Amino acid sequence: MSDNYEFWKRIWDLKGNSDSQDLLYLDGYDHLNHKFDSKLIANNILEQLEVSEGSSILEVACGAGFLAREMQNLNYTGVDYSEPLILKHKNMFPDHNVLISESSALPFEDNQFDYVFCFGLFQYLPNREYADKTITEMNRVCKKKVFLGDLKSEKTRDTHFVYPLDTLMNMGYIITRCLYDKEDKTRYNALRDT
Predict the structure, then answer these.
(1) CA-to-CA distance for 180 and 94, rounded, in angstroms?
(2) Which of 26, 82, 134, 136 is the most exposed place for a label (fewest CB within 10 A)?
(3) How far apart are CA 13 and CA 130, in angstroms?
(4) Distances (CA, A) of 95 to 19, 48, 191
(5) If residue 45 lies in a helix (H) or strand (E), which one and from where to where?
């Protein structure tokens, strides 16, 4: 795996192994100059996906549960590649169904979930090949709609990855605006029926 993969894996594992219970810190949103409201973001994602009661939903890169805490009334499953973050998630939300998994090799059946989403994942992926596998896997396990949230159109750190916007559009993704800052033109979301 690449140096970027190892760099970010260490960061997430360190956060998961910390004593912190702060979900903004644990899931990497504490340093941003935006008000991060998990309820607002989760509701926007669910609205764009058009999730109905009783639907099954998978969150890829669920971290310690920043968004998952808002989805406790759904048939929710989460995955993350950081074992310490998954253990932290299970400790904080014992009723959540979460497990360790790479986003590029999801341990689920084809069409197992009605909806699949990620939020803030893609900038931490190591390269285009890994990102393509992640998209393929998310589409494979999904019956209805896939949501790729908080994508960047430009790097804000050398260690970030940026997926080409035009490629997503050519795949049939609909591009929507940043969920937490409507004025931000550098962040966007991508939504697609499977």
Answers:
(1) 28
(2) 136
(3) 20
(4) 21, 25, 28
(5) helix 38-49
Rounded to the nearest integer, the mean pLDDT of the chain is: 94
How many beta carbons lie within 10 A of that of residue 174, not counting itself?
12
- Print burial letters for 49-85: b (CB count within 10 Å at least 16), e (below 16): bebeeebbbbbbbbbbbbbbbbbeebbbbbbbbbebb
| Residues in Cβ contact with 114 at an 8 Å cutoff, skipping those fewer than 6 apart | 51, 55, 56, 57, 142, 143, 144
User: What is the spatial distance between Cα 4 and Cα 176, in angstroms, rounded to a whole number?
Assistant: 27
Q: Which tens digits make up the pLDDT trace of 28-76?
A: 888 766 678 999 999 999 999 999 888 999 999 999 999 999 998 899 9
Longest dimension (CA), the chain: 44
User: 161 near 123, Cβ under 8 Å?
Assistant: yes
Give dist(CA 172, CA 147) in Å, integer.
12
- The Cα–Cα gap between 72 and 65 comes to 10
Tell me how far the alpha carbon of residue 129 is from its chain's centroid: 18
Partners of 78 in beta bridges: 59, 98
